[in-house]
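Email to the structure team, subject: cellulase model.

Hi all, the expression group asked for a predicted structure before they design truncation constructs. Nothing fancy, just the tokens so they can compare against earlier work. One-line instruction: predict cellulase, return tokens.
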Amino acid sequence: MARSSPGLLNIMKYTISILVAASLVYAQQAQYQQCGGINYSGDTTCVSGSVCTKLNDYYSQCLPGTPSGPSAPTPSTLPRLGGVNTAGYDFSVATDGSFNGTGVPPPPSQFTHFANEGANLFRIPFAWQLMTPQVGGSINETWFSSFYDPTVQAALASSPDTRVIIDLHNYARWNGAIIAQGGPTNDQFASVWTQLAQKYGSNERVIFGIMNEPHDVPNIATWVDSVQHVVNAVRAAGSKNFLLLPGSSWSSAQAFPTEAGPLLVKVTDPLGDNSKLLFDVHKYLDSDNSGTHPDCTTDNVQVFTDLVTFLKANGNRQAILSETGGGNTASCETLLANQLAFVKNSFPTLLGFTVWAAGAFDTTYVLTQTPFANGTDQALWTAAVKPNLP
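Reply from the structure team: attached below.
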């Protein structure tokens, strides 16, 4: 065989290198295409300006951004979380923020019961009017020390790894009027959290859920300003606790990426980064997403896929699903199990969940997760919740 000249060899090498480079470029996945996951066999590199981002064990996607470096957001240090709402102090709070009850203490024994099964997160809702009988006023120390705080302490004592969400359950309202939009001022809203920061600011296992399910808020930007006001006030009080920031539309996980989310991601933390600012989302599985029917019609996997995509694309942020659930029915056993498995596999973007609800609910409530008197659990807990606890 004749030997090629050195010049021809160089031309061939140069041509081959161009072809190789071109093939690598064309093999890269476009923005928003899949780039990884269990059973995925395609290319795992993304075009310039995108990063292959794991959304769950089965799906990684090319999302806008640059490879992580020294300036990349630092995820929170919370572990994977899972547990239950222990309701009672919120009983009779109406969706207009009015309240005419006295509250019912959740049984302390439930915390040990659920912790022994693997739960490490309890959400303990309370009526604003029980905590501070006058809007913007002082905490009712008698009620706090006799009822609410002993419940919180019982939850914290259930295991050394337990976290507790203390949840202001008033729908962004006081007696029908919306915070900073005809109702309490931002200072009055912040006052209750400043006082709670003085109570729990030294215990980072306590998470502040600053408001349950804002809804029908005329001006979302004004609501986000109210959230920022509370963040600033809590930090000024010396608290370094994790804070759960709620959106609008009943804290809807589905609405979050297009409604309040783009504004809430701009809320800043005086601590210097946003790793302790978590987003508070809810999503039920019944036909109208109300959490009032025993049967489930969806597993919400697409909703949470979209939410994870949004959180990843907006600074690698994190959220907790603090309300979800269904009836003790076959449809919910299957669909809630699918949803919670997705949430579990989406850690750390989705840090975990608390299902609704146990506590002072009796065993006939449509979404009850209260254990039976003989110590056995509800069917939904056994089939869908317990397998997806941390």
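The two ends are 68 Å apart (CA to CA). The longest strand covers residues 350-359. Ping us if the truncation boundaries need rechecking.
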